[in-house]
Amino acid sequence: MQADCKISIVPIKLCCRPNVDLNLVICRDLGKEPLLLITNLKSDDDRIAVTVH
Fold first, then answer.
1. In a 10 Å sphere around its CB, with 0-12 CB exposed, 13-18 middle and 19+ buried, how is residue 1 labelled?
2. How many CA atoms are closer than 13 Å to the CA of 3, on its beta-carbon side?
3. What is the pLDDT of residues 11-53, one digit of tens each?
4. Residue 51, CA atoms < 13 Å, CB-side half-sphere
5. Cα–Cα distance, 41 to 30 (Å, whole number)
6. Which pLDDT score is estimated for 14?
């Protein structure tokens, strides 16, 4: 089964680790609530699509 979703990537910082660059990956249209994933992969990293997929 394959699902179509809309993906947004938002750069974030956590208060407990202000020197670490992170991205919040938001997957919409998979269910009632969006799926939220935090990663240290950069948005231009080719692995992000495979890792999230």
1. exposed
2. 11
3. 999 999 999 999 998 989 888 999 999 999 887 877 766 655 5
4. 13
5. 22
6. 95
Residue ranges per domain, the chain?
A: 6-52
How far from each other are the two terminal CA atoms of the chain, in whole angstroms?
13
Tokens of 4: 């179509």
Burial 13-36 (b: 16+ CB within 10 A, else e): eeeeeeeeeebebebeeeeeeeee
Q: For 1-53, where are the E strands, in sequence order? A: 6-14, 17-28, 35-39
The candidate with the shortest Cα–Cα distance to 24, out of 35, 34, 14, 39, is: 39
Written as six digits, the tokens of 18 are 């202000």
